[in-house]
Amino acid sequence: MDTSKDAIVTWCQEYLADLLQVPAGAVDPHADFDRLGVDSALAVSLLMEVEERYGVELPPEELFADPTLDAVAEYLHTHAERSVA
């Protein structure tokens, strides 16, 4: 599985776009979740999916400290590389 930051962002955009029923291109990876219409329930759903998909535990406080897909992807990319190394 590709754990590059770009691949993670793309997967997260597609996942949230499906939940929000918008095109993936409409999900700005740099926008705060609030601006995207992502409430806490959707954020927790994303959290659970990325943990299952990438095998990296993403603490909720990390998710909400910088609630953007870019920050989520950076965290996952960094920690996925550590778990492989």
TrEMBL record:
Native organism: Amycolatopsis tucumanensis
Protein name: Carrier domain-containing protein
Keyword annotations from UniProtKB, A to Z: Phosphopantetheine, Phosphoprotein
Domain Carrier span(s) in chain numbering: 6-80
Keyword Phosphoprotein among record annotations: yes
Pfam families xref list: PP-binding
UniProt-listed InterPro entries: ACP-like_sf, PKS_PP-bd, PP-bd_ACP
Domain of life: Bacteria
Signal sequence segment: none
PROSITE patterns reported for this sequence: CARRIER
